[in-house]
């Protein structure tokens, strides 16, 4: 009994030390980049945390417009960019401890359920959402809601498209408009490999957005509408087999350098003409313009290939809900500013003009301001919103639950590694194992 008591005491002390270390990390981690925007006299200071450096550009544009329109309530925004995991973990710890959270924060869609458990430590945005909700793709609000309260403001629709390198496709002798189905895509990939030094695409082993989009096209998901796990269903197995075959059987794809499509190794690979295409949401445009400058004028977008003639050619992927924390000393000002930035007509036009995102407010899609020349039209051509309007009714919403972060973790660390990289499990084995682990968590 004495030994057991000592053991429990030791475990307890170790647990307290770990908790203390984690709490300290929430306040001691340094930002990768800090930008001060609107540093004017008499301005109210607000802090903003993000995990995407590019998002700061939207807030910079918004602060400059806000301070001109509302000189009696100017804002000084201190925008801090952190690594993805650090920011989300630190924000959760700060909210749980009641200390150290910013006024405004970005939360990625797959992590958002973590912040809705129990009593959300976030400010409801209903007063600003409800008057304009009918002008938005409403499913993007539902992702960030709980008990009829809207906590996160969406950043984009996230319509997934195919980005083609026209130079490589022309060298391969492929007309991209002839690619209607995924079978057509594979056949086109064989011509690319045969006639060029590139592969058709790459397959992520540490990122699951493309796979998620491919199953969503087929009306599947990781969870059904009731939150029940459906990870190992027939559609999901078939789709993972398809990705695996592109690498190992058809040999039209390589594993993504760096593991996922946001890695520096991947940007370099693509910039040098390593692959002829990539399936990613519209918001990925900013990655091209900022990190793959040599491809300007060579990349064009088209709908995703369908799984069968007449099938869906897109899926709503990814997302960032921007929130106001309940620790903000200027909550009303912060909420008003966030609504101005991401709910207003001007704000949604800026989402396109500044970031190249497909704005969730659909009533601006055909606004004349959206047709004005900018860096995205110069980079990708002028058909961008023609493609978006063509597929707007084919964009499925995804089912996000409190276990979505666990699913993301399992796919990024285990499933793709075991099936595609190591080939130690079949798609059916890996998905069945993951489904059981998620159900039992």
UniProtKB/TrEMBL annotation:
PROSITE patterns xref list: PROKAR_LIPOPROTEIN (PS51257)
Q: Keywords on this record?
A: Cell membrane, Lipoprotein, Membrane, Palmitate, Signal
Where is the signal peptide, in residue numbers? 1-20
Which protein, by its recorded name, is this? Answer: Carbohydrate ABC transporter substrate-binding protein
What organism is recorded for this protein?
A: Metabacillus arenae
């Amino acid at each position: 009994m004495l030994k057991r008591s000592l053991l429990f005491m030791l475990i307890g002390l170790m647990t307290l030390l770990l908790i203390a270390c984690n709490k300290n990390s929430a306040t001691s981690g340094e930002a990768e980049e800090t930008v001060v925007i609107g540093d004017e006299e008499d301005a109210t200071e607000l802090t903003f945390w993000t995990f995407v450096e590019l998002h700061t550009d939207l807030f910079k544009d918004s602060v400059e417009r806000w301070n001109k329109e509302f000189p009696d309530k100017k804002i000084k925004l201190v925008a801090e960019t952190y690594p993805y995991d650090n920011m989300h973990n630190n924000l959760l710890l700060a909210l749980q401890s009641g200390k150290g959270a910013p006024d405004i924060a970005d939360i990625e869609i797959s992590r958002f359920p973590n912040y809705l458990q129990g009593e959300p430590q976030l400010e409801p945005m209903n007063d600003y959402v409800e008057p304009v909700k009918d002008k938005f793709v409403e499913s993007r609000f539902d992702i960030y809601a709980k008990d009829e309260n809207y906590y996160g403001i969406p950043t984009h629709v996230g319509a997934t498209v195919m980005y083609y390198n026209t130079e490589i496709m022309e060298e391969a002798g492929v007309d991209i408009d002839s690619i209607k189905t995924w079978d057509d895509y594979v056949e086109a990939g064989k011509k690319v490999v045969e006639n060029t030094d590139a592969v058709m695409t790459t397959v992520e082993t540490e990122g699951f957005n493309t796979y998620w989009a491919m199953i969503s096209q087929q009306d599947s998901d990781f969870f059904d509408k009731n939150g029940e796990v459906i990870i190992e269903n027939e559609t999901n197995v078939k789709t993972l087999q398809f990705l695996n075959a592109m690498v190992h059987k058809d040999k039209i794809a390589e594993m993504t350098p760096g593991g996922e499509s946001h890695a520096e190794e991947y940007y370099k690979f693509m910039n040098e003409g390593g692959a002829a295409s990539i399936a990613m949401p519209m918001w990925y445009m900013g990655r091209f313009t900022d990190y793959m400058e040599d491809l300007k004028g060579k990349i064009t977008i088209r709908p995703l290939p369908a799984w069968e003639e007449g099938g869906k050619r897109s899926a709503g992927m990814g997302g960032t809900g921007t929130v106001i924390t309940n620790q903000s000393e200027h909550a009303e000002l912060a909420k008003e500013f966030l609504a101005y930035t991401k709910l207003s007509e001007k704000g949604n036009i800026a989402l396109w003009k500044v970031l190249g995102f497909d704005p969730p407010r659909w009533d601006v899609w055909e606004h004349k301001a959206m047709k004005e020349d900018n860096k995205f039209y110069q980079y990708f051509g002028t058909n961008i919103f023609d493609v978006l309007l063509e597929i707007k009714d084919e964009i499925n919403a995804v089912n996000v639950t409190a276990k979505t972060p666990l699913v993301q973790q399992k796919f990024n660390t285990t499933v793709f590694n075991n099936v595609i990289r190591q080939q130690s499990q079949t798609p059916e084995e890996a998905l069945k194992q993951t489904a059981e682990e998620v159900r039992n968590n």
